[in-house]
Amino acid sequence: MANMIQNAKDSISALLAAACEKAAAKGQLPEGAALSGTVEIPKDTTNGDYAANHAMTGARALHMAPRKIAEALVENLDLDGTWFSSVEVAGPGFINFRLAPTWYADVLKCVSDEGADYGRVDEGHGKKLMVEFVSANPTGPMHMGNARGGVLGDALASVMDRAGYDVWREFYVNDAGNQIEKFATSIDARYRQLLLGEDAVQFPEDGYQGEDIKELAKAFYDEHGDVYLDKDVAERHAAMARFGLDRNIPKMQADLRRYGVEYDEWFFESSLHESGYVAETVAKLTERGYTYEKDGALWLRTAQILSENLLKAGKKQEEIDKLELKDDVLKRANGFYTYFAADIAYHRNKLEKRGFDYVINVWGADHHGHVARLKGALDALGLDGEHRLQIVLMQLVKLMSDGHEVRMSKRTGKAISLTNLLDDIPVDSARYFFNSRPESPVLFDLELAQRQDNENPVYYVQYAHARICTMIANLAAEGHEVPASADAALLSDETEKELIKQLAALPEEIRLAARDYDPSRVNKYVTELAARFHRFYTVCHIRGAEPGVLEARLLLADCVRRVIAISLGIIGVSAPEKM
Fold this sequence. Notes:
- The protein is α/β, with parallel strands linked by helices.
- It has helices at 4-25, 54-57, 59-62, 66-75, 101-114, 144-162, 178-196, 211-224, 233-258, 269-274, 277-287, 302-312, 317-321, 339-353, 368-380, 385-388, 418-424, 427-434, 446-450, 457-477, 494-504, 506-516, 520-539, 549-570, and strands at 39-40, 50-52, 84-90, 94-99, 128-132, 166-173, 265-268, 291-294, 297-300, 328-331, 358-364, 389-394, 397-401, 404-406, 442-445.
- It has a 5-stranded parallel β-sheet with strand order 7-6-5-11-12, with helices on both faces. It has a 4-stranded antiparallel β-sheet with strand order 1-2-4-3. Strands 8-9-10 form a 3-stranded antiparallel β-sheet.
- Strand 3 (84-90) and strand 4 form a beta hairpin.
- The protein is flat, with a radius of gyration of 30 Å.
């Protein structure tokens, strides 16, 4: 797949290398001279579309002034048959290149020829990659934080797919451990309150107080009556936990499906315990000498593992000592494995048993202290957690309504559920707004997300797509079909050129979004594409234009339509044909 921006940069470097050889052969540069440098797109393209710094980076080695080197290179450049119409030396030795119509034409050809695959790059080389995201405790409704994690994870998975990885989406269901016991205890308390009265049963202070718990307790009572009132606590809690999970998990799946999120697998923590995989993983750590017993519990030598890793990374021992690293319990004195032990086993399952080359987890920022510990445990197992596991930490969501922040707490039952959010906000708006930079908090303005005007950025982009679709349909009715090719030399207005440059940028944006694990780059990209189209549409009339110009502009508009649809599709937003 073509990356016309990178291709142009590579072409410039090759042209300069050839010019350097010619200049050296003529004695204008030292014999055997070789230059390297970078080619960038300048912020101000008044003096050129690309700028190369090869002359300046080679000045010391060649013992020449950068501008003299640049002048020798330019004198020996041959631009015939290239993507460049002219070149000149600027400032202390920058070499500026201007694009020729052939480059603009080839961009449009790439968009047309590659169709829905336009923008794909091969950074991943088909490596197996798992993206695990949301993975919320199934103890209550999906909430706003899950809403953000859902779109970030899903959009990131799409970005990595287009960057050439073999992508797998997964939800890790925490259906074991302390959270599930607390869940069962909460249902049990509400169940017994129904039978014995609220004053007769004290609700646990750290229990889940939401209305959903009351509803589950009522449903359990409707199905079983008072049968479980006299059963022992362990049996009662096991039944209530199973009852609650069997209702909550399908609701979570339905909510995420409504949100446009589908997973390849819902992986259950309980399966790791039932299969003995957690115990086996802990045994492997013990075999490698990374565990010890204390106070009846089994501990992981986390401090030792992390210290060794930090020393390898160049940290000094005195710096490490200040971190006050601590060890972690893997197996409690009561014989139960900790969540951390299960998490290590789960990630061993990903990397070793199922053979994923890389794993990306999208976590809340409150998990930041867990990152190094988990990577270190995988390193201790010989699985290279430092490089094969990447964690994307996302900041919190602040919900605004009427200019005021809406406070949320899952435990007290005052969280805004994903279901309620999507009842009020279109899915497209929710996905677009939540797909922002992971490290930045989201200020989600309910009123703005509901607006049907250009103040709402997703509406602004979708309107550009719908506008093009309507225009193409109207012109087709007048006998003007989108041509397979056109004379790009006729697209000489600056708004046309800027629009084509933005079309060319999608593959590079995909590469950078994959490199940085930042799918929000696609939002920025497509918003700018829509802005450049609206400017072009205002300045350059299509209907009534001269023959040739009309066809060229129509082809350009159709390419924009295609790329907007591709970009919105990556972040899971629809591209309507009418608005």
